[in-house]
Give the backbone structure.
Amino acid sequence: MVSILFVDDQPLVLDGIRRMLLAHRRTWSMRFATSGDEALQVCANDHVDLIVTDMRMPEMDGATLLEHIAHQYPDMIRVVLSGHSELEAALRAMNVAHQYLAKPCEGPAIAQTLKRALVLRDRLPDTRVRRIVNRLGVLPSLPEAAARLQRMLSDPTPNMTEVSGALAREPAIASKVLQLANSAFFGPAQHVASLHVAASLLGLSALRHLVTSAQKLELPPLAGGVRGIHPVAFERHCATVANIAASLVPDAPWRDDAYAAGLLHDVGVLVLASRMPVEFAAIQLRVEAGEPRSRVERELLGADHGEIAGYLLGLWGLPDNIVGAIAAHTSFREDQVGTLDVNSALGVASVLAREWLDEPLCGRARPEGPNWDEWRERARSVLAQEAA
């Protein structure tokens, strides 16, 4: 049975949660604590799968509690259920909380969020990999792209179109911007895939905080490049996939989703390179010897970089169709493309980006056919305009 711990210094709030989730008592073992100290005692004495905490509590606030939980119990999923708080506290919580729910929150909305997180957890069976991913509050940034954003945001009145364009070159910070925009920090949760909309929703103060925080992280392997990841090439590849994915059906309602999926599709590689460098080096040696990356990753880790990225971004509350496309992109089959959607657009874009950038096709033959000719022409036109 799944064990869930709810923490709030107001007993009446906990009583309300207990009543709202009464229908789940046969599948969830629910515990309740009125302080951070009491919550840590519960975790020390009993296994807990998921914790849901208020932010504003005396003595130990929710962010501090989750910092302890992330360090001591990295396999635990962490959710904040709180009223709107100050921006600084909210941003601090987002580095330790996987998701944020705003009070008041109805029982079905709470249950849906918790169920989704638990389903995602079951898709990443290797507990060691899951613990490493769960600990992540932010992805390692690409130094040049982050510095570019920092310069733009140092302007008192930066051009938000240019800022969103710079975000499109920095998948790590872009993922946090989309996480915040899709959370309940700044109002009712909504489906946000456009970086321009997300950046405008967050505002300059939050964006400056995110970029500054990213630059303070000490992740030296990516700063100087690591075997298998070269920051400039990685940035270019992700941006190229995003642009192609969004160009394949220009008037599609899912265009922004395809762009976001393209930009973030390889962030699982960043996770492995920065958090599992020994395993990543072993994987890279076999990839350079000609083995498919995703197959080697599954053999050594039980999941590939797409599935790892999908798990992390799903925990962070990004829209399901973006998460699903990213998780499945390593299994894309060129001969099974029907009507384009977010999933297939990402797969097609990944193939065409490798062709455009003269990257290896991982042993695959160059796909041919009328559709591929049309898609290549669309990609060529868009990328040529980008380069002009």
User: Anything to note?
Assistant: The first strand starts at residue 2 and ends at 7.
